[in-house]
Amino acid sequence: MHIRRRTYEKSFSDTNITTRIVLKRHRIRSSTNDGHIIYENTLEQSSPARTLSKNRRATLIGIPPTLINASKENLQKKFTVQPTVFFYNEETFQEACYRSIEDIPSVTENECLWIDVTGVHDHDILSRIGLRFNIHPLVVADIETTEQRTKLDVFEDALFLVGKMIYPDSIQQITHIEQISFYLKENILITFQEKPKDIFEPIKNRIRQNKGRIRRSKIDYLFYSLVDSIVDRYMDVLDIIGTKVEGIDHQLMRTLSRDTLEQIYDLKREMLYFRRSISPLKEIINKLHKEEETQIMQESTYIYLKDLFDHVVQVNDTIDTYREMLSSFIDFYMMLNSNAMNEVVKTLTIISTIFIPLTFIVGVYGMNFDFMPEIHWKYGYFVVLGCMVLLTLIMLSCFKRKNWF
Predict the structure, then answer these.
(1) Between 15-25 and 137-144, two packed helices, what is the crossing angle to 10 degrees?
(2) Alpha carbon of 27 to those of 19, 33, 124, 144, 145: distances in Å?
(3) pTM
(4) How far is CA 78 from CA 64, 167, 200, 331, in A?
(5) C-alpha 180: how far from its chain's center?
(6) CA–CA dist 253, 27 (Å, integer)
(7) pLDDT tens digits, the chain, 405 residues: what are they?
(8) Who contacts 17 (Cβ-Cβ below 8 Å, separation ≥6)?
(9) Nearest CA among 236, 131, 152, 139 for reference residue 192
(10) Out of 7, 70, 121, 388, which could bridge 30 as a Cys pair, Cβ 3.0 to 4.6 Å?
(11) Residue 158 in contact with residue 223, Cβ under 8 Å?
């Protein structure tokens, strides 16, 4: 179970020691050679050692070619880290982009603050966010390390959730994967996305237009809504995969090709990756439902967490069903391939069986003895040839009667 509880009581006075610890545990960092326009007055020069560490990345193992990881895309294409700040309650709403992290005002008791950060490749900005909202450096390192499994860390006054956002691309017929992190405190929620593509836009519109329960509820309901939207995207991806699975099922009954087997293996690897990314959510939601130490999750949100738990169970069941179907497709493919090979062997066996008596007859009359009366007979050749044809027809009729072909 990938739910970890952390309690940090010891403070590090030496900044260098803290930096070494973070870099030792998390060496997977992306480059920060960007032009950060909106934060140009707040950036500091990174040290060469830190830049070298950020350029070192781990190899992603087990991701099929039909999945595109946002971390690899970010290595090729950089963009400005853009935090969007939402202050809201039932009566008021404010959306803004601040030039400096330190300019974000403190949240009052009767309002909620949501900071949506797009881009996790700028260590300086993430560190400033961590200092501004008292986020531990190890949590900041976890946010930057984009190849983590889904997990939940429980602190004394906060929750930290790392998940995978999976969404389809209908134009390119591929599936995108990116890591998303949630840091939840009392009246404060900070989300960290890897790419500018925002799947939370419908929720932002609900906040802007004061629709639904978000502005009438505490910040934990917004946290639930965002996680629920991610789970809904899982269902969209699985619906597309279900269509592919049905297509493979019909294709196996028509033709037998190696391309079909490659498609099955690609989908099976996708299901394995999805299961590894999504299955911990079930235990995480159970943990959120039972978590009483932080007092962040309100009792009124528990019923929504239960509904979210049902959705995650449905997603996991669907993944297991597709995995079993793909495994059965592989077995079926092997059986069809074996049957095709058996048909070839049976055809060759029938041909060989027919030629055994014919070879015997030709061998007998091919012997060079002086006293063989049939050799000197005028019609001997035609009689032997006719006997061979007749014997062939008799054997074919016997094979046909036994349904051998």
Answers:
(1) 40
(2) 11, 17, 16, 10, 8
(3) 0.71
(4) 24, 20, 21, 44
(5) 13
(6) 49
(7) 444 444 434 333 343 333 332 322 332 233 333 333 233 333 333 333 333 333 333 334 445 555 656 554 554 455 677 788 999 988 888 888 887 888 888 888 889 999 999 888 888 888 999 999 999 999 999 998 888 889 999 888 899 999 998 887 766 567 888 899 999 998 999 999 888 777 888 999 999 998 888 999 999 999 999 999 999 999 989 998 999 898 888 888 887 788 888 889 888 888 888 888 898 998 898 888 776 655 788 888 889 999 999 999 999 999 999 999 999 998 988 888 888 898 889 889 988 989 999 999 888 888 877 777 777 788 888 888 899 999 999 998 988 888 877
(8) none
(9) 139
(10) 121
(11) no
Tokens of 13: 């006075």
In one letter, which amino acid is 103?
D
Task: Report the phi/psi class of residue 212: left, alpha or beta, with left for phi > 0 and alpha for psi in -120 to 50.
Answer: left
What lies within 8 Å, CB to CB, of 306 at 6+ separation is 289
Q: Residue 314 has which token pair?
A: 């449905």
Tokens of 121: 């490749």
